[in-house]
Design goal:
- With about 500 residues, this protein is of the alpha/beta class.
- Helix content is about 50%, strand content about 20%.
- The protein starts with a helix and ends in a 10-residue tail after the last helix.
- It folds into two domains: about 160 residues, Alpha-Beta Plaits, CATH 3.30.70; about 190 residues, EAL domain (TIM Barrel, Alpha-Beta Barrel).
- It has 17 helices and 17 strands.
- The protein is elongated and about 120 Å long.
Length: about 500
Amino acid sequence: MLKIDRLDAIGRLRNAERRINALEQRVSELSLLDAVTGLPNHRHFEDRLSQSLLVAQRHGHIVAFLLMDLDRFKRVNDLLGHSGGDEVLRLVGQRLQEALRQGDTLACMGGDRFLVLLPEIKDVVAAARVGQKLLEALQAPFRAGSRELDLTASIGVCVYPNDGMDPHVLEAHAESALVRAKERGGGRIECFTSTLNEVSLERQELESCLRSALQNGELQMYYQPQFFMDGRLAGAEALMRWNHPLLGSVPPVKFIPLAEESRLILPIGEWALRETCGQMAKWQAISPSPLLLAVNVSVLQFANGDWDACVARALADTGLDPGCLELELTESMVMRQGHEDLAPLHRLREIGTRIAIDDFGTGYSSLGYLQRLPITTLKLDQSFIAALTSEDPGLSSEAIVRAVIQLAHSLNLTVVAEGVETEGQRDMLELLGCDCLQGFLLGRPLPADAFEAMLEFMSTKQFLKKAARGQEEVKVVRAVPAGRGRGAR
């Protein structure tokens, strides 16, 4: 009996040991997984990365490291709560996993950050293609409860051995590339290259100069006139120029992206808005008819949260009528925003401000959003205008331009053609029913004093035309014999 009890005790002890070992194994496994998504966590990812680098070193493989961050995910947590946000993260993880190869590793770094390891890849271009597949996997809306959410992400890419030999160096370089993708508006991929290091010093020096440009009065606003089809002045688009005492004229294509990356676009953009609104308010007194001021809005201004209040303050302080201000946003920028992010547009339309979609036709070109958004104007991209009069029917954009104009007019939208440079383009646009024109054929961007001189000349010319027309009408009336005029019986 004693022997049986002892054997039973030994059996129970062994069963307990097995259960403990199984629990320890399970705890060990869970320690390598993200609690929300069930994907490998940061620690597990680092282990796999280290192993992949050792294999790559022996066989001469290229290893790619991708760091992904969901854009503006905080609004999802604010909208759905953390439990709803966690459910969305699980759905994101599932979609990303389906877009990868079997040997690739997807991990969750915690929060809304994901890591991707491509242990054997051809080159950085191939890695960027994988990144594009991941972005495309997020394009379809996510359903959480009764809500549908649109998500975008930013991705930083680096590769071993070109961008680093050590896991920590690779992660730091992927982070640098990710930051650049975020600064450029999100929803995009940036690759870390040696060029980033080569230009960093120049970029820092240029950024330092740009920080003092506003205080030193080096920034200046130019105004490119816009005309109605009958030749009357409709308004102007405000364009920024930078004249540095040593660097000379710095092209906008160089300093505007830098201003956005460094977030200097926020104070500079607010200054430009006030400057141009104040100037246009003065010009309204000179012009015989109201003029429209078109001002470009950057991605950062749009996403800043209080830019509609900033616009309202500028209008109130300068006295410019809200109906004389048109804010220009690119269609790709608008399409990346969630429904809640578009609320400022609706508030600005409520006070009378006009909203234009710039470079129309070069981005998503989704027709559905034209009805949902509170826009008033479509600006046809100059690439369509350049191809408008092409002799090759296969290259001509006439059919596209005609369709856009008809669509816009059916939605009561104004159409402005950018980049008009030839008489043939102007004649074709008039034939197709375009509303307004802008381009070098009609007028180049002018500083404020030159634009004001042009406005005074055109106003005087228009006044003289009206006066001459009035004198002709008087002569006609006097020439009609008594009893033979209009209404005589």
